[in-house]
Amino acid sequence: MKACSSFLDFHLYVLRGQAFSANTKFRWMGLKTSLPLPPWSVILSQVLFYFILEDFVFYWGHRVLHTKWLYKHVHSVHHEYATPFGLTSEYAHPVEILFLGFATIVGPALTGPHLFTLWLWMVLRVLETVEAHSGYHFPWSPSNFLPFYGGAEFHDFHHRVLYTKSGNYSSTFTYMDRIFCTDIDYRKQKALEVHEGRTS
């Protein structure tokens, strides 16, 4: 209930204010609304760029939120749930939501997409974060067929481990954690599970 209440409060009081000024901001970003729609090659390449850029920016922002002071005063709200579920994807301190929300909007701000592309990106981003916080590994999860995709299992590990050792800071893909070795404990755990599965 706490996550639901926080979710509603944030959307009613914080995002509503953002929505009123969104038209001006989006026009400044170069957002296009006219027909025809851009070619699918443009739409898909922009969305892929947004995912990669968002993951890079989110990784560093999330890693900073795991420093002692910011974790205690800001990010610990999101980690109140050791076993997250869909709504907890947006259950966080307002400062964190605005801080990490920058990662979501920076790609569109740089490219000035068509409104359709922006909506597609936002829908896919929300679906991804809800899936990562769902606690379920679905058969249709992108982690089954996309290399370097994190998914629920990857993010669940992040929520279960102490804040200083959690790693797995990426939002969508795992390449940043792999490059900077912040997924070592997760990889050790996965190797142990594989070994135990083979020996039992």
TrEMBL record:
EC numbers for this chain: 4.1.99.5
Reactions catalysed, as given in the entry: a long-chain fatty aldehyde + 2 NADPH + O2 + H(+) = a long-chain alkane + formate + 2 NADP(+) + H2O
Family per similarity comment: Belongs to the sterol desaturase family.
Single GO cellular component term: endoplasmic reticulum membrane
Protein name, as recorded: aldehyde oxygenase (deformylating)
Higher taxonomy: Eukaryota, Viridiplantae, Streptophyta, Embryophyta, Tracheophyta
Keyword annotations of the record: Endoplasmic reticulum, Lyase, Membrane, Transmembrane, Transmembrane helix
Membrane topology: Multi-pass membrane protein
Short name of one Pfam family: FA_hydroxylase
Xref: InterPro entries: Fatty_acid_hydroxylase, Sterol_Desaturase_Related
Annotated GO MF terms: aldehyde oxygenase (deformylating) activity; iron ion binding; oxidoreductase activity
Domain Fatty acid hydroxylase: 47-182
GO biological process, one term: lipid biosynthetic process
Bilayer-spanning residue ranges: 35-53, 97-121
Keyword Mitochondrion (UniProt): no
Entry's localization field: Endoplasmic reticulum membrane
